[in-house]
């Protein structure tokens, strides 16, 4: 995907480090647990316990010794992520402006350089995979995951990596629009539907990731669509678990569901289609 070079005036990037804030477990911790289980086989309850126990009494993660330019230039993956973040910021800011909706705030991006780091959702670890923490409105991506994704999807490709970033960015959009809070509330009220509701939120994020690409289809290159579909298929619950987990325990959706959600977003370029066809908010 042909993205414009990042401008540090258009993105918010910081080093890993600093401390998180005390508080209950938000949707970010649930996402962390799910990723640890479905991708790396970690016990989700142990992960949630670890995240909760690691809450700290201080502010959001703060910059260590690197400025944004240094962070974004530290590797090819970092530069790509910063280019992608800038494009996502511009695209979603325009969507909010078109709707006349206020309250849009761009998220931070952290590309951890250590094996563990502190967040407002607790201690992050490389083995957790990428995640969004609503407590500090930050996307955390250990770029080593991109190599894991390439092995899972059977190929590399920048669009597969950007899809991951766009998916986590979508969780930020869900947070500032109040959707994630509504889903958390519904999960608490009806625990038996907790997994089903989480699947809806994840598929909705896949669709929103596709909307970003659809809004920038002039930048899409040959093979990008296939890279995205392969990545979505590789991280479907049924594919990752290999039949070891029953469908009612899925938390992110099957490969077919994730591919369909991403395709809907790309082909329509319309976030309202995601709302209507995935959430039923027609």
TrEMBL record:
One GO process term, biological-process aspect: proteolysis
Matching InterPro entries: Uncharacterised_pept_Zn_put
GO annotations of cellular component type: membrane
Protein name in the entry: Zinc metalloprotease
UniProt GO molecular function: metallopeptidase activity
Family matches, as Pfam families: Zn_peptidase
Compartments it resides in: Membrane
Keywords annotated in UniProt: Hydrolase, Membrane, Metalloprotease, Protease, Transmembrane, Transmembrane helix
Domain of life: Bacteria
Topology within the bilayer: Single-pass membrane protein
Membrane-crossing segments per the record: 20-40
């Amino acid at each position: 995907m042909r993205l414009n070079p990042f401008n540090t005036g258009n993105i918010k990037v910081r080093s890993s480090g600093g401390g998180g804030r005390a508080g209950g477990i938000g949707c970010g911790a649930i996402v962390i647990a799910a990723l640890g289980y479905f991708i790396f086989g970690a016990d989700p309850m142990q992960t949630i316990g670890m995240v909760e126990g690691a809450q700290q009494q201080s502010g959001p993660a703060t910059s260590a010794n690197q400025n944004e330019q240094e962070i974004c230039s530290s590797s090819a993956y970092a530069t790509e992520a910063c280019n992608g973040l800038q494009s996502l910021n511009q695209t979603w800011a325009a969507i909010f402006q078109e709707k006349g909706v206020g309250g849009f705030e761009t998220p931070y991006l952290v590309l951890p350089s250590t094996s563990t780091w502190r967040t407002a959702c607790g201690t992050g670890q490389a083995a957790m995979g990428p995640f969004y923490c609503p407590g500090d409105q930050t996307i955390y991506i250990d770029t080593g995951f991109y190599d894991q994704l390439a092995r899972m999807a059977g190929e590399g490709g920048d669009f597969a990596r950007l899809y991951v970033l766009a998916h986590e960015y979508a969780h930020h959009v869900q947070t500032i629009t109040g959707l994630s809070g509504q889903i958390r509330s519904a999960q608490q009220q009806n625990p038996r539907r907790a997994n089903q509701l989480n699947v809806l939120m994840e598929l909705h994020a896949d669709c929103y990731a596709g909307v970003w690409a659809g809004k920038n289809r002039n930048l899409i290159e040959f093979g990008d669509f296939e890279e995205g579909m392969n990545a979505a298929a590789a991280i479907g619950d049924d594919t990752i678990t290999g039949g070891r987990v029953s469908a009612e325990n899925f938390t992110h959706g099957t490969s077919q569901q994730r591919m369909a959600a991403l395709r809907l977003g790309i082909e329509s370029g319309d976030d309202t289609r995601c709302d209507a066809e995935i959430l039923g908010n027609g």
